[in-house]
Specification:
Barwin-like endoglucanases, about 120 residues, 8-stranded mixed sheet, mainly beta, 8 strands, 2 helices, about 45% strand, globular
């Protein structure tokens, strides 16, 4: 049996930009992506703590150490600059393997979105 489990989570980052006139996606600081084991094009769920909105999109790599969290295209209507979001990805795996799987959890410093050294 295959199940979906939490693979990666960037917990409580601040939205730095919202670009409506863009094809769509979320741009994430490259260092945050690396820490959370996310890759460009990966499907993610974005949960907005400020207004309860949830949306799915895909990841675009942002400049390393920029702190960038930018919702692009239609997703820009679901956030405001300064909102705090959680970014989540899931993986499908065998039930038994999932029991011992450890997700990548990242807790950046608010409101800069940078990783604490």
């Amino acid at each position: 049996m295959q199940i979906q489990v939490l693979k990666s989570k960037i917990h409580r980052v601040t939205v730095t930009q919202a670009e409506l006139n863009y094809i769509g996606s979320i741009t994430i600081d490259e260092r945050l992506m690396q820490a959370a084991n996310l890759i460009e094009g990966e499907r993610v769920q974005v949960v907005n703590i400020n207004n309860g909105e949830r949306l799915e999109t895909y990841v675009i790599t942002g400049a390393k150490d920029s702190g960038t969290i930018c919702l692009n295209g239609p997703a820009a209507r679901k956030v405001a600059v300064g909102d705090v979001v959680i970014i989540i990805s899931y993986a499908t795996m065998d039930f038994e393997a999932a029991k011992s799987f450890k997700p990548s959890l990242v807790f950046p410093k608010e409101p800069s979105n940078l990783l604490v050294p």
